[in-house]
Amino acid sequence: MSIEIPKTQKAVIFETSGGPLIYKDTPVPKIQPNEILVNIKYSGVCHSDLTAWKGEWPIPYKLPLVGGHEGAGIVVAVGDNVQGWNVGDLAGVKLINSTCLNCEHCQQSNETICRARALNGISRDGTFQQYCATDAIQAAKLPSDIDLKSVGPILCAGITVYKGLKSSEAKPGQWIAISGAAGGLGSLAIQYAKALGLRVVGIDGGEEKGKFVKTLGAEEYVDFTKSDDIAKDVVAITDGGAHAALNVASSEQAIQKSVEYVRSNGTVILIGLPPNAKLSLDILTTVVKQITVRGSYVGTKWDTTEAIDFFHRGLVKCPIKVVGLTELERVFKEMEEGKVLGRYVLDTYK
Question: In the CATH scheme, what is the code of domain 8-156+299-347?
Answer without folding.
Answer: 3.90.180.10
